[in-house]
Write a structure and sequence with these properties.
34% helix, 8-stranded mixed sheet, PH-domain like, 3 helices, alpha+beta, two-stranded antiparallel sheet
Length: 173
């Protein structure tokens, strides 16, 4: 099973702030939620100070371990199977994606550092917003998405070797 057609991105919505692993299989994109614990850990720290931070750390460690175990398993399992394991998992039929863009990081990042964003909308008008937590994840997405979404995807970022980060494309005349 080829593993290259996957990448991670954080879904940004009012209800959720969790990282998904995105699989491309045929004409489908599978969105499989990784650990939904990060926000819990942060909330604990806010509410319970140091003790919360310690609990938070152990939660984070556990979440990380769970994520690693999950990724190992996910490498061997058909994403269809993973879909039903969590009500937050979903899939998108690629031809249903009406427009998509990979953008440079927002000036005001809600969730700390990010390397860039991936926004797309479906024919039914549903809009999805994702953020890439680091440039490796954005690179991985750039390996996958342009192939799949070819005409639909606008890529508005380019790699800046000096700054070692993605930035808005400067139009070369």
């Amino acid at each position: 099973m080829e593993n290259s057609a996957t990448f991670n991105a954080r879904l940004v919505s009012t209800r959720s702030d969790s990282v998904y692993r995105i699989y491309a299989r045929g004409n489908d994109l599978y969105f499989i939620q990784l650990a939904g614990l990060s926000t819990t850990a942060q909330a604990l720290t806010v509410h319970f100070g140091l003790i919360g931070m310690l609990i938070g750390e152990s939660l984070k460690r556990r979440a990380k371990k769970k994520t690693e175990e999950f990724l190992q398993r996910a490498g061997q399992v058909d994403p269809e199977e993973l879909l039903c394991e969590n009500k937050n998992n979903f899939k998108a039929y690629i031809p249903e994606i009406r427009e998509a863009a990979i953008e440079p990081p927002a000036l005001f990042a809600m969730h700390g550092k990010q390397a860039g964003r991936w926004n797309f909308s479906l024919r039914d008008g549903k809009k999805m917003r994702f953020e890439f937590e680091n440039s490796d994840e954005l690179k991985a997405a750039l390996d996958v998405l342009p192939r799949l979404l070819n005409a639909t995807l606008r890529v508005n970022v380019e790699w800046d070797e000096m700054k070692k980060r993605f930035q808005k494309i400067k139009h070369h005349h």
